[in-house]
Design brief:
The protein is α+β, with helices and mostly antiparallel strands. It contains 9 helices and 8 strands. The strands form 2 sheets. It has a 6-stranded antiparallel sheet with strand order 3-7-6-5-1-8. Strand 5 and strand 6 form a beta hairpin. The longest helix is centred in the middle third of the chain and has 32 residues. The relative contact order is 0.11.
Length: 255
């Protein structure tokens, strides 16, 4: 119960709006416009360290992409989406980069649920689902009131239908908000940031060789305790071992 209360308190806190400030071009933006991508990269890296934000990581990803550092571009775009899943530009650029990766490993999960998660649930922020929770909760309360208190049958039917829709919507948005929060706090998803990474089917890496991974491949780290070698799960569901220095977690440390 305590965790549930804390979860809902966190949801309420996301409802508090943040002040909007006018955005002026930064040194990185000016360097990028002048096609000085190395200087732009350095400026964006400083911006990310000073004030991590979805926009800052998006700009960093663009600079990495222009310098043909595709693995680091994927990492930056994913960090941008970690902070703001509604960032359509970052999502578009991520898809563009991933569609051109060397020997990309396709996912084996093509279920309807996976499609719903990737195209709808995971593309909206925690704040979006929080608003949905309160809207459907209000709808259920109003519907219940009309259903139980109205004197006319057709009003009662409308109230009952609204109550059912509200409960179903409240359940769906609550589960989606919980998933959004889980994704935000996820520490297991990582990106291959080296040009290539050899894998093995055994932890000592003396067994049968696994597939070679190339920069930009997104994996899930299964074993986080190993120092030199980590166990990872590939997009196709295969588990292999690789060097821990070859993958970088999508973890954003906000200041």
């Amino acid at each position: 119960m305590r965790h549930l209360i804390l979860f809902f308190l966190f949801l309420v806190s996301t409802m508090v709006g943040q002040p909007v400030h006018a955005v002026s071009p930064t040194a990185g933006d000016r360097a990028y416009e002048e096609k000085n991508f190395t200087q732009a990269l350095q400026s964006y890296q400083a911006e990310v360290l000073a004030n991590p934000s979805s926009a800052a990581y998006y700009n960093l990803g663009n600079a990495h992409y222009r310098l043909k550092e595709y693995g680091k571009a994927v990492l930056a775009y994913r960090r941008s989406l970690r902070l703001d899943p509604d960032n359509a530009d970052a999502r578009h650029n991520l898809a563009l980069v991933e569609s051109n990766l060397t020997k990309a490993i396709p996912t084996t999960d093509n279920s309807l649920w996976q499609a719903l998660r990737s195209r709808w649930i995971d593309t909206h922020s925690l704040a979006f689902w929080t608003y949905g929770i309160f809207i459907f909760l209000l709808l259920s309360f109003l519907g219940f009131g009309f259903w139980r208190l109205a004197s006319k049958i057709f009003v009662q039917k409308i109230g009952f239908s609204s109550f059912v829709i509200g409960i179903l919507g409240f359940t769906f948005t609550t589960l989606s908000a919980y998933r959004a929060l889980s994704l935000y706090n996820d520490t297991s998803t990582a990106v291959v940031t080296t040009s290539s990474l050899s894998t093995s089917t055994t932890e000592n890496r003396k067994g049968k060789a696994g597939p070679t991974l190339y920069e930009g491949t997104t994996v899930r780290v299964l074993d986080k305790t190993a120092q030199q070698t980590v166990q990872i799960l590939l997009p196709n569901g295969v588990s292999v071992f690789c060097s821990g220095t070859g993958v970088t977690p999508i973890v954003v440390n906000q200041q």
